[in-house]
Amino acid sequence: MLRMNSRSPISLIRPLVRRLHAYVPGEQPKIAGLIKLNTNENPFPPSPKVLAAVKNAVDGRLRLYPNPTAQSLREKLAELHGCAPENITVGNGSDELLALSVRCFVEWKRDARDVWHLRGLQLRLAKATVQYFTPSYSLYPVLADIHGAAKNESSLNPDFSMPGLEELRRGKNWRFDAALTFVTTPNAPGGRGYKTSDLEKLCRAQKGVVVLDEAYADFADENAMELALKLPNVLVARTFSKAYSLCFQRVGYFAGNTELIAALDKIRDSYNVNGLGQIAAEATLDDLDYYRANFKKIISTREWLSGELKELGFRVLPSRTNFILAGPPKFPADNWLQKLRDQKILVRWFSAPEVRDYLRITIGTQSDALALAQAARATL
How far is it, in rounded angstroms, from Cα 130 to Cα 243? Predict the structure, then answer.
């Protein structure tokens, strides 16, 4: 073990950072012939028009800085959502914007034990609290820890549905005064969609900012974008990664109240979205029919695969995303992870107690789904 002394590099690192457990992304293996169903990537390539736009932009412009506010992209997004460009900010993937929201709206945590017991100072702890349901996106607690914020976790119902307001008030360890609340909708890793009407009730009850993280909204029956444009404390997060096949370019955005957006822009890095990413996202918005056709294919494959796995004895939860959460029969889920990998099919398993009995399976092409179903049948 390294000793903590003035010459040790460890002594130069903030204690908070030394204690951090970093976010663990999905595995990116380099195995020939592997069917990769573990990171919720779109199985279809970007539109040919998007590829052409990016290729045409690889010229002398590469020596120049990109537009610092992604102005043209924001204008196209504003037109899509029926709002003003000032209602939109663009980020290096939606993950950057989630991190910015913690920095922008959440105070640093003081010593929580002292704050909690001092009369009249509970409000200070509330202003230092990042809140979210569990299970949900595992980046949220990491962002809170990086900031030195207090975390407040509240369990979803056993079927991954969202508790109603009365349930939350009765003892779901929920804070209506939390500075920042993240809600993944549709939920990940559960896959369940939430009604906009239920989300609106929750958002109206919250005193702090609510981020509705809609990375998978294009695969669902409804979305909550309207809430970001009518409620002063709501931001909706979207990404071009999951539905629009641009994981490689890292482009996401927030939509919401102009004052919240302006505050985020104050702390956003200069030139945070690369120029080719901006061009790719703009071209995507010019060819939405191509992507909507792909959404239908993915949804159709999702329903087919869900039915096939149910026939094999899997417990498949209802999904409004481009993945399913399935509880396998006969063997523990982590055993299935390896058994499928041995057949060159990679899915994802999480060790958290709420989901350790499930596999999260990305919806690939129909041929990917057929291969998975055959592998599962061969494993039983």
Answer: 27
